[in-house]
Design a protein that fits this description.
The protein has about 80 residues and is mainly α. The chain is built from four helices and two strands, in the order H-H-H-E-E-H. The protein is about 65% helix and about 10% strand. The chain has a two-stranded antiparallel sheet with strand order 1-2. A hairpin with a 2-residue loop joins strand 1 (about 55) and strand 2 (about 60-65). Helix 1 crosses helix 2 (about 25-30) and helix 1 (about 10-20) crosses helix 4. The longest helix is centred in the C-terminal third of the chain and has 17 residues, at about 65-80.
Length: about 80
Amino acid sequence: MINLNRFDLVTLRLYVAAVDAGSLTASADRFGNSLPAASKRIAELEQHCGVPLLQRGQRGVTATIDGQTLHRHAIEVIARLE
């Protein structure tokens, strides 16, 4: 079951930071989250969206085409809320 309450500004910031840094670990560290907690948030976001947002590899993460679209929108949302 997807917990929709977890999709908040923290999740969007984690996602944007992961794409920007190319690293989920760096994103988690930046916001004081554990890697498993950050990874779970991103996985739930992907489940909610119904598409993979990040391509994971040994050298980090990159946004998929759908992930790039979310990245652009998330930046706008974060900027408006701040």
